């Protein structure tokens, strides 16, 4: 067992393998290097050539079959049961600023959760939209669980957390918004956002959850993801039970093409610049709130 108390956690699967070398290279260049890479292999045949550049004594390679949600549940429970104090999360098709681990650990001295900014890039890693979250909210701020009710900006590609006190993690196997569910249900305590460190978030066709582009399809998908998210959380929360009902009501109403067209126009009108994960699936009540705020 490694003496490191910090784990960098990620999952590698066939769709990401063409970017995996850049991910590993980014980790080897981190200014703080006393961490293990806890990597779950989801279906890749051989990783030896690419992993040869990463120190063997800092590599924990696991294998797991199942749904994306089930695999992440497995990995998160491994972290909590293996003696690590801190987890840094990253996706294997992304890269990171060289200070990402160091900046996260500095803030985690007084915080339970840290979220860093993201620069959107194209498939080749060229920047398209820098400081995507920071442009909207500012370079640094504290936030609460309520900040994640209507959308998510704490992903398993741009967050880090303390593991002390984390209970056994249980994630429904068919859940898509795993990170949103995980941080909403299992994080408690103080949290901060920072633009001092970056995740370079690669945008391409196979990336299942993109940012910055809104379409009729993405709006409908976001509404359905929200409904599943709220329904899952409503078991323990009256707030999410109410949100679940309102989301279902919105979905039912826009089954009419005429109503959907009017709804979509309002989404385009009221959706803030730099929309976050699942934000474009707006509820009718949000239009009323935005109208009041505009007045």
Total number of helices = 10
CATH class of the largest domain: Alpha Beta
CATH topology of the largest domain: Spore Coat Polysaccharide Biosynthesis Protein SpsA, Chain A
| Number of β-strand runs | 10
Strand content: 15-25%
Name the average pLDDT.
Answer: 94
What is the CATH architecture descriptor of the largest domain?
A: Alpha-Beta Complex
Distance between the termini: 60 Å
String of helices and strands: EHEHEHEEHEEHEEHEHHHH
**What's the name of the CATH homologous superfamily of the largest domain?**
Spore Coat Polysaccharide Biosynthesis Protein SpsA, Chain A
Structurally, the number of domains stands at 2
Largest sheet: 10 strands, mixed
Global shape:
globular
Query: What's the Cα radius of gyration?
Result: 19 Å
Q: Which residues form runs of ≥5 with pLDDT under 50?
A: 291-295
Q: Bin the helical content.
A: 25-40%
Summing up helix and strand content along with how strands pair, one would put the structural category as: alpha/beta
Pfam family, one: Glycos_transf_2
Protein name: Glycosyltransferase family 2 protein
GO molecular function: transferase activity
Organism: Leptospira gomenensis
């Amino acid at each position: 067992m490694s003496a490191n108390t910090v784990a960098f956690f990620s999952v590698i699967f066939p769709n990401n393998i063409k970017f995996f070398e850049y991910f590993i290279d980014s980790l080897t260049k981190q200014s703080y290097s006393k961490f293990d890479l806890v990597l779950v292999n989801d279906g890749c045949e051989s990783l030896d050539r690419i992993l040869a550049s990463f120190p063997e004594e800092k590599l924990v390679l696991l294998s797991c079959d199942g749904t994306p949600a089930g695999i992440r549940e497995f990995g998160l429970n491994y972290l909590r049961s293996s003696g690590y104090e801190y987890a840094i999360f990253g996706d294997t098709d992304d890269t990171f600023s060289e200070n990402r681990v160091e900046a996260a650990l500095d803030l985690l001295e007084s915080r339970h959760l840290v979220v860093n900014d993201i620069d959107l890039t194209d498939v080749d890693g060229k920047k398209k939209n820098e400081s995507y979250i920071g442009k909207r909210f500012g370079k640094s701020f504290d936030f609460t669980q309520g900040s994640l009710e209507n959308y998510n900006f704490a992903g398993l590609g741009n967050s880090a957390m303390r593991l002390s006190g984390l209970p056994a993690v249980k994630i429904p196997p068919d859940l898509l918004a795993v990170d949103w569910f995980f941080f909403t249900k299992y994080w408690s305590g103080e949290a901060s956002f920072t633009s001092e460190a970056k995740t370079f978030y690669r945008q391409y066709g196979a990336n299942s959850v993109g940012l910055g582009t809104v379409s009729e399809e993405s709006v409908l998908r976001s509404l359905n993801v929200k409904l599943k998210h709220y329904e899952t959380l409503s078991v323990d929360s009256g707030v999410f039970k109410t949100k679940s009902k309102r989301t279902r009501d919105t979905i039912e109403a826009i089954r009419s093409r005429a109503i959907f067209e009017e709804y979509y126009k309002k989404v385009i009108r009221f959706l803030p610049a730099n929309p976050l994960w699942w934000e474009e699936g707006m509820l009718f009540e949000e239009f009323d709130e935005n109208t009041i705020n505009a007045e």
